[in-house]
Amino acid sequence: MPYTDTYARLAAEDKPKLIKAIISALTADKSQEDNVVARQLSRAEKRKSEINSAVKSLYADKLSGKMPETFFYNLLKDYEKDLSDVEQQIVRYREQLLKTQVQADGVEKWVDRVEKYLTIEKLDRYLAREIIDTITVSAFYKKDGRSMQDVTINYKFVGNLNVLNEGGGEEIAC
Fold first, then answer.
1. Is-contact 75 58, C-beta < 8 A?
2. Is residue 151 situated within a structural domain?
């Protein structure tokens, strides 16, 4: 199990540092994306407020007799459609921002789990099920005259942590 003992040791020695390193590695591109999504959310919420104000004004015009009833209902129908679209956008933007927070919470759960395995010497079924989500093994390829395979371990809650390791993926000589 490549690197898991390293993560367990780091979790025991300096848990906040490990959590910060994992989160920053996993969200390196996300912070700029999250800023864009936050701005889009702000614009959508502002648009929702504008639509609500326009509907109130439209209703006041209808009550005062400034607007024919058929024209009022046509405009109201258009505003309701716009409002529905904007509310759907708001839900999508909030879900996107929530995913980043959930991933950060997942990192803390994973670090808590892996810290328990500081002295583990052998991967058993229980350990594998506790912290590993999937293991992907590549096809054989030749490197320096040797048959090789790449092994990628995706951990529960945090995914592939090879981004923390300078060497990248784990190569296994066969």
1. yes
2. no
Quote the number of domains for the chain.
1
What pLDDT digit, counting tens, does each position of 63-98 carry?
898 888 888 899 999 999 999 999 999 898 888 877
| Secondary structure in 3-state letters for 39-73 | HHHHHHHHHHHHHHHHHHHHHHHHHHCCCCHHHHH
In degrees, rounded to 5, the angle at the alpha carbon of residue 27 between the alpha carbons of residues 24 and 32 is 115
What domain range is 82 assigned to? 4-126
For the chain, the maximum distance between any two Cα atoms, rounded to a whole number of angstroms, is 88
Strands (E) located in 11-156: 132-137, 141-143, 146-155
Q: Does residue 32 belong to any structural domain of this protein?
A: yes
pTM: 0.47
- Tokens for 16, please give them: 């906040």
